C-alpha cells in the first residue's frame, strides 16, 4: 500500500510540474485566447447528444442549437478576425431560430406557433445574411455562380434522343 501512495504522489507532482511548465510556455494562454468558443460549442454538442441518446427532454434542443451556432460563429471570428462579425451578425438570429426549429421539429405534438416562428426566423436570418454578404466580395462569387448556371442551362443539358419518335 505504501508503494502505491508514493506512485500516486509522484504522478501528482509530475503532472503539476508539467502543468506549470506548459503555463510558463504560454500554452494555456494561447488555448484560452484562441479556443474559448469551445466553452459554448462543446456543451451545445453534448446537449444534442444527450437528447438523441434519449437521456433528456426535447426542450434542451433550444439551448443546444443556440450554443452550437454561437460557438461556431465565435470560433470562426476568433480564428479569422472579428471584423467578420460586421457581416455575420444575422447568425445571432439564426442561432435562436435554429434552436426553436429543432425543438418544434422533435417535440410531439408539434407546437405550430413555435414551428412557424422558427421558420420565419430562419428565413429572415438567411435573407439578412445574404444581404450582408452582398456588400462584400461575395457578390462576385454570386455573380459567377449565376453566370455558370446560365451557361449550363443554355449549353449543358443533354439533348433528348429523338430517334424513337
If you had to describe this structure to a student in words, what would you say it looks like?
With 165 residues, the chain is an all-alpha fold. Helices cover 78% and strands 0% of the residues. The longest helix has 23 residues, at 2-24. 16% of the residues are buried.
Distance between the amino and carboxyl termini: 92 Å
Number of strands: 0
- Round the Cα radius of gyration to an integer and report it: 25 Å
β-strand amount: under 5%
Structure classification: mainly alpha
Shape: extended
Biggest pleated sheet: none
Helix content: over 70%
Give me the number of helical elements. Answer: 8
Nearest-integer average pLDDT:
88
Helices and strands, in N-to-C order?
Answer: HHHHHHHH
Q: Give the low-pLDDT segments.
A: none
Question: Which helices and strands occur, and which strands form pairs?
Answer:
Layout: H1 2-24, H2 27-34, H3 38-52, H4 61-80, H5 85-88, H6 90-106, H7 112-134, H8 138-156
Helix pairs in contact: 3-4, 4-6, 6-7
Short description:
This protein has 8 helices and no strands. The chain has 165 residues and is mostly helical.
Features:
165 residues; mainly alpha; 8 helices; 0% strand; extended
Amino acid at each position: 500500500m505504501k508503494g502505491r501512495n508514493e506512485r500516486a504522489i509522484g504522478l501528482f507532482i509530475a503532472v503539476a510540474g508539467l502543468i506549470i511548465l506548459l503555463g510558463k510556455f504560454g500554452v494555456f494562454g494561447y488555448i484560452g485566447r484562441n479556443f474559448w468558443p469551445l466553452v459554448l460549442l462543446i456543451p451545445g454538442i453534448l446537449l444534442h447528444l444527450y437528447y438523441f441518446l434519449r437521456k433528456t427532454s426535447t426542450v434542451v434542443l433550444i439551448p443546444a442549437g443556440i450554443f452550437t451556432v454561437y460557438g461556431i460563429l465565435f470560433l470562426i471570428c476568433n480564428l479569422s478576425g472579428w471584423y467578420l462579425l460586421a457581416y455575420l451578425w444575422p447568425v445571432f438570429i439564426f442561432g435562436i431560430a435554429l434552436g426553436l426549429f429543432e425543438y418544434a421539429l422533435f417535440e410531439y405534438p408539434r407546437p405550430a406557433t413555435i414551428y412557424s416562428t422558427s421558420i420565419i426566423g430562419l428565413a429572415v436570418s438567411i435573407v439578412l445574411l445574404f444581404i450582408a454578404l452582398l456588400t462584400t466580395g461575395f457578390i462576385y462569387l454570386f455573380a459567377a455562380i449565376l453566370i455558370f448556371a446560365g451557361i449550363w442551362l443554355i449549353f449543358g443539358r443533354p439533348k433528348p434522343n429523338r430517334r424513337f419518335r
